[in-house]
Design a protein that fits this description.
Shape: globular
Helix content: 40-55%
Structural class: alpha/beta
Largest sheet: 8 strands, parallel, barrel
Order of helices and strands: EHEHEHEHHEHEHEHEH
Number of strands: 8
């Protein structure tokens, strides 16, 4: 199995995050050689500058956390983040449109954001805790059709995070056409290993250091 550190997107997305906390996040990511830091768009450039000369990627979020902004806004957000140096984008789908079965709307939106990302990685957050199993499957199928590189379980800001059931269902749906990111709910190395066994190849967490050190992750995300 890949080293635990390279499964982790070291995450700080809270509304009151300040610059010094972003700097610390990046220093931690360098020290533990995490796969990426995941930050809000306004902190992309600072994170890129902090991580220059390392192989730690900068990931940013689009339409976060509700996914209810317009397609045009999500496209602009993705383009700006990539132009600032982000190489991975985690976008939130419009859950209401999915529930209304406006599949073409979802498909078009993801496709446009993927085009805005260019060769950069796009992860599509389906917010599984708000969906039925049928809706989770449909969201994953649409994401694959639109060219997404990953499907992601959760924002970590709704009613629940990743579950083994959801990760397995999502992986069974996308098969080898996309990867799965589990976010939220990973409290221990055992949890992480179980998520990987269920099909996840990336873990979004603010408790990555605790996991590496073999402690319980006590953070909400």
């Amino acid at each position: 199995m890949i080293a635990i550190n390279k499964l982790i997107d070291h995450t700080l997305l809270k509304q009151d995050a300040i610059e010094s906390e972003i700097d610390t996040l990046c220093e931690e990511a360098k020290e533990y050689d995490f796969m990426s830091v995941c930050v809000n768009p306004s902190y992309v450039k600072r994170s890129v500058d902090n991580l220059k000369g390392t192989d730690v990627k900068v990931c940013s979020v689009v339409g976060f956390p509700l996914g209810m902004t317009t397609t045009e806004a999500k496209v602009l957000e993705a383009k700006e983040a990539c132009d600032a140096g982000a190489t991975e984008i985690d976008m939130v789908i419009n859950v209401g449109a999915l529930k209304d079965e406006r599949n073409n709307y979802i498909l078009n939106e993801i496709s446009q954001v993927k085009r805005a990302c260019g060769n950069n990685i796009l992860k599509v957050i389906i917010e599984a805790c708000l969906l039925t199993d049928e809706e989770k499957v449909r969201a994953c199928q649409i994401a694959v059709e639109a060219g997404a590189d990953f499907v992601k379980t959760s924002t970590g800001f709704s009613t629940g995070g990743a579950t083994l059931h959801d990760v397995k269902l999502m992986k069974d749906t996308v098969k080898d056409q996309a990867e799965v990111k589990a976010a939220g709910g990973v409290r221990s190395v055992e949890d992480l290993e179980a998520m990987v066994k269920a099909g996840a190849t990336r873990i979004g967490t603010s408790g990555g250091i605790a996991l590496i050190q073999g402690h319980k992750n006590k953070t909400a995300y």
